[in-house]
Amino acid sequence: MQVRVRLMGVLKEAAGQSELTLDVESGADVGSVISKLLEGRELLESTLWDPVVDSYTPNALVLLNGVEVSNLQGKDTPVSDGSEMVFLSVTHGG
Amino acid sequence: MSVTCTKCKSNPSVYYRPYSGERLCNECFNETLLKRVKKTINKYKMFEYNSRIAIGVSGGKDSLTLLRLLHEIESKRPDAELVAVCIDEGVTGYRDEALRLAEKNCRILDVEMHVTSFKELFNETMDEIAARDRELGTCSFCGVLRRRALNEAARQVDADRLATGHNLDDMAQSVLMNILRGDINRVEAFNPGGRALEGYVRRVKPLCEVPEKETTMYAYLNGLEFQNIPCPYAHEAMRSDVRRFLNQMEVKRPGTKSIVYQTGLKIRSNRRDGVLGKCRICGNPTPGEICRVCELTGAGTE
Fold first, then answer.
1. Partner-chain residue, chosen from B13, B94, B252, that has the shortest CB–CB distance to A53
2. Which residues in chain A are closer than 8 Å to B14, comparing Cβ atoms?
3. How far is CA B78 from each of CA B43, B64, B83, rounded to the nearest angstrom?
4. How close is the nearest chain A Cα to the Cα of B80, in Å?
5. Average predicted confidence (pLDDT) for chain B
6. Could you say which of A7, B53, B87, B237 would form a disulfide bridge with A12 (CB–CB 3.0 to 4.6 Å)?
7. Nearest CA to CA, how far is A72 from chain B (Å)?
8. Domain boundaries, given as residue ranges, for chain A
9. Dihedral, CA atoms, B237, B242, B245, B251, nearest 10 degrees?
10. Does the distance separating the beta carbons of A72 and B216 come in below 8 Å?
11. What is the pLDDT of residue B225?
């Protein structure tokens, strides 16, 4: 199935693109979409991921179909075909 | 499927506040943010009914959120006036996009916009400063000059208040940085409501109790187009370390940033308003003989 991803703020710059579509396996959740998104994107990973708390939460807000995912089930929230995830950078840097 | 908003109890919620346990719909999120900013303005008596308020607009999410919220609040006061002041630091590529976004948002709200530049005020762009030997890192240098430039811009538009988009995260970082540096004078001078000083427009921070995540969410929910490009000189090592630490603590212990901020206010309450003299070169307020701007720019040494 496919999930549409939009990146905003410095995350867009780190990824080098503002929108992309990811192919993910049926039954995927927010965490697995993020893992897929970060594959081969080292700059995006270092911008988004905090290794100390092992999470994106210090650096970004992640919305699934318009709802911030910590208001759902966090990284365990299931996604479905055609879902849209938006990544909003929290830190601006200037 | 998200749960129902804990405030209006009818719309589906879109945002969870870990420090309060609230789950809010779009409308209640906007409403509670507006209410908190109004409460902060009243608590610190930031504005008069007829204040002419210069808003420092950088094109980032915080300053654009501030512009939108103050427009909503102050448009209900017929004698209050808003004017956006923007500083062109002279950072190629970075500031061009910021000024375009500031202009776009001001045009939408029909707010007057005034631009002044480092080149005009200090005879150097940030690109030129970054290229030469300096006592301070680029961020610290830029911060000192930008504070002065914002004050000059506010004076140029005859404002009696200067509002900046510093949020709760910025405030908590400043408190902790000053403690880590052992700079007790700055900890004691911590004051989001600002103070009146001769030669200085009173500087206020209406977003000082709004977490950065919430200014981000507000900008997104309200369709504000904000800057994507990071400043090429934005590498202030100590602030980055403190920001990272506070962000990690906030994940582990929600409410940490607010506690640090409140602690800064408690320390401040024990001592207020030291006496400032005037810089012997430019005449601006300073605790020493020469102000920081004249020290950094080498004014008066030619």
1. B252
2. 63, 66-68, 71
3. 21, 22, 14
4. 29
5. 89
6. A7
7. 6
8. 2-89
9. -120
10. no
11. 85
Beta-carbon contacts of residue B26 (< 8 Å; ≥ 6 apart): B11, B14, B221
Among A16, A13, A14, A32, which Cα is nearest to A83's?
A32
Residue, of B273 and A2, whose pLDDT is higher: A2
- Helices (H) and strands (E) counted in chain A, each on its own, are 3, 5
**Chain B: nearest CA to A77, how far in angstroms?**
10
pTM recorded for the entire structure: 0.90
**Which positions 5-24 of A are in contact with B (Cβ < 8 Å)?**
8-10, 12-13
Q: What is the ipTM of this complex?
A: 0.93
Strands B277-278 and B285-286, sheet pairing: antiparallel
Is B270's pLDDT higher than 70? Answer: no
The continuous run of DSSP H or E covering B122 comes out as helix B118-122
Nearest to B251 among A57, A61, A91 (CB): A57
Answer whether A74 touches B (CB < 8 Å): no
3-class secondary structure, B156: helix
Which structure tokens are listed for B92? 């190629």
Q: How do the pLDDT tens digits run along chain A, 94 residues long?
A: 999 999 998 899 899 999 999 999 999 999 999 999 999 999 999 999 999 999 998 889 999 999 999 999 999 999 999 999 999 998 754 4
What is the structure's pLDDT at B187? 79
Q: Which residue, among A92, A90, A60, A91, has the nearest Cα to B98 in the 3D structure?
A: A92
Between B277 and B258, residue with greater pLDDT:
B258
B13 contacts in A (CB within 8 Å)?
67, 71
Question: A13, B233 in Cβ contact below 8 A?
Answer: no
* N residues, chain A: 94
Give me the sign of the Cα torsion angle B247, B249, B252, B257. negative
> B67-110: per-residue pLDDT in tens?
999 999 998 898 999 999 999 999 888 888 888 999 999 999 99
Given a cut of 70, is residue B239 above it in pLDDT?
yes
Mean pLDDT of B113-134: 90
Minimal Cα–Cα distance from B79 to chain A, Å? 33
- Cβ contacts of B28 within 8 Å, gap of 6 or more: B5, B7, B8, B11
Which CATH superfamily does the domain covering A2-89 fall into?
Answer: Beta-grasp domain (3.10.20.30)
